């Protein structure tokens, strides 16, 4: 699966975003070491803190199905601009894909790739 294919899967997942409070839709698609793809969207709640980001939805779906090895995650949003994972999601990405990368699409449609490590240097670990 190339980066464009993963972005497309994230864009499709974004259609399921449940975001009546922010109206900010996010979609994510994570590629496993076995070549499978798991997708997720943001899921908001009237109690705002209960909201789950698209990245964590995708990773948690995969982990709950027994997946443990992840290579890349694509993230897109309705803002159309680069949408970088929040701090909590970065910590989750370090947990499950410390050697992985994050793929984002900019306003002009150009795909950018960042290592997970570069977006959360000196991360907490036990
Ligand atoms: N959101 C994500 O899904 N991923 C991120 O990395 C940043 C924020 C969602 C959470 C909330 O539903 C909305 O975007 C606005 O914060």
What does this structure look like?
This protein has helices spanning 3-14, 54-64, 87-96, 116-119; strands spanning 26-32, 37-41, 70-77, 101-105, 111-115. It is 29% helix and 24% strand. The chain has a single domain, classed as Cytidine Deaminase, domain 2. By secondary structure, the protein is an alpha+beta fold. A hairpin with a 5-residue loop joins strand 4 (101-105) and strand 5 (111-115). Strands 2-1-3-4-5 form a 5-stranded mixed beta sheet. The model has no long low-confidence stretch (mean pLDDT 97). It contains 4 helices and 5 strands. Tetrahydrodeoxyuridine (THU) binds at residues 19, 22, 24, 26, 42, 44, 51, 53-55, 85-86, 89.
Task: Give the topology, please.
Elements: H1 3-14, E1 26-32, E2 37-41, H2 54-64, E3 70-77, H3 87-96, E4 101-105, E5 111-115, H4 116-119
Parallel strand pairs: 3-4
Antiparallel strand pairs: 1-2, 1-3, 4-5
Bound molecules: tetrahydrodeoxyuridine.
Task: Give a short overview.
The chain has 126 residues and is of the alpha+beta class. It has helices at residues 3-14, 54-64, 87-96, 116-119; strands spanning 26-32, 37-41, 70-77, 101-105, 111-115.
So, the CATH homologous superfamily?
A: Cytidine Deaminase, domain 2
Number of domains: 1
Which sheet architecture does the biggest sheet show?
Answer: 5 strands, mixed
How much β-strand is present in the residues?
Answer: 15-25%
CATH class (first level) name:
Alpha Beta
Q: What is the oligomeric state here? A: single chain
Low-confidence stretches: none
CATH topology: Cytidine Deaminase, domain 2
DSSP summary: helix tally: 4
The molecules bound to the chains, other than polymers, are: tetrahydrodeoxyuridine
Span from first to last CA?
32 Å
What overall form do the CA principal axes indicate?
globular
CATH architectural designation: 3-Layer(aba) Sandwich
Class derived from helix and strand content:
alpha+beta
Helical content, roughly? 25-40%
Question: Strands across the major sheet, in which order?
Answer: 2-1-3-4-5
């Amino acid at each position: 699966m190339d980066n464009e294919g993963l972005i497309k899967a994230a864009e499709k997942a974004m259609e399921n975003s449940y975001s009546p409070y922010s109206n900010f839709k996010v979609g994510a698609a994570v590629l496993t070491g076995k070549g499978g793809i798991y997708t997720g969207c943001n899921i908001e709640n009237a109690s705002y803190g209960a909201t789950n980001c698209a990245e964590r939805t995708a990773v948690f779906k995969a982990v709950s199905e027994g997946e443990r090895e992840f290579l890349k995650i694509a993230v897109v949003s309705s803002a159309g601009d680069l949408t970088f994972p929040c701090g909590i999601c970065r910590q989750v990405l370090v947990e499950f894909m410390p050697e992985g990368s994050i793929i984002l699409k900019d306003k002009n449609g150009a795909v950018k790739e960042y290592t997970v490590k570069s977006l959360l240097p000196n991360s907490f670990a036990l």
